[in-house]
Write a structure and sequence with these properties.
Helix content: 55-70%
Shape: elongated
Structural class: alpha+beta
Radius of gyration: 21 Å
Strand content: 15-25%
Distance between the termini: 22 Å
Length: 206
């Protein structure tokens, strides 16, 4: 059992942790900030969840979220139509913000996660893996599918009094996607990924 040192991002305290790390969460002894989380099988779980998230995200964007029926007339809406309506109403900034946070950023994040964890799972090493980790860390806070989900539920509650609401495949794909992404965010820690890259570099040098 070796030892490693990690600097706390909050107070700059240098802490010693065992290597390979045991299962669990390591906190800074000075300020209590989480330094390191070790979940056995993290890469396998994240790879599987990224594939599932990609499939669910495609379904969520392809099919209607809900169908609203009033006096025999039906109207369907999905991610794209909601952005289109905002744009046609002149809310250009809001349309761009919704597009970025509910379509572009989540799609990029899920796709890059699938590539990164797929390479790690299959024991591959690529030069772009380091930039991938940095990009994932930067864009992760900008994916706001959970906020969009809350807005959708609020809309359903308000519209159900005016007519008939029928949820589509997109809605249920969306419902399943949110907890999967939340769990993947919870267990993801960049430190084991850096360690795997470092170990692969060491093997190549030898």
């Amino acid at each position: 059992m070796g030892k490693r040192y990690i600097c706390c991002h909050k107070c700059d305290e240098i802490s010693e942790i065992p290597y390979p790390p045991r299962k669990g969460r390591y906190k800074c002894p000075n300020c209590g900030h989480t330094l390191f989380r070790n979940y056995p099988g993290m890469i396998e779980k994240l790879y599987a969840m990224s594939i599932a998230s990609f499939i669910l995200f495609i379904l969520a964007n392809y099919y209607p979220i809900l169908t609203f029926s009033v006096i025999g007339k039906e109207s369907s809406a999905n991610f794209a139509t909601s952005i289109e309506y905002l744009y046609l109403d002149g809310d250009y900034i809001m349309a761009i913000a919704v597009f970025m946070t509910t379509i572009l950023v989540p799609f990029v994040y899920i796709t890059l996660s699938m590539v990164l964890f797929g390479l790690l799972y299959h024991g591959k090493r690529a030069l772009f893996m380091i930039p991938l980790i940095k990009i994932l860390e930067e864009i992760r806070p900008w994916g706001m599918l959970d906020v969009f989900m809350v807005g959708t539920l609020v809309s359903i509650v308000k519209l159900v009094k005016m007519g008939d609401i029928h949820t589509g495949i997109s809605f249920w794909a969306f419902v399943i996607l949110i907890p999967i992404l939340a769990y993947s965010h919870m267990i993801f820690d960049p430190h084991p990924v850096w360690d795997m890259i470092e170990e692969s570099d060491g093997k190549k040098r030898r």
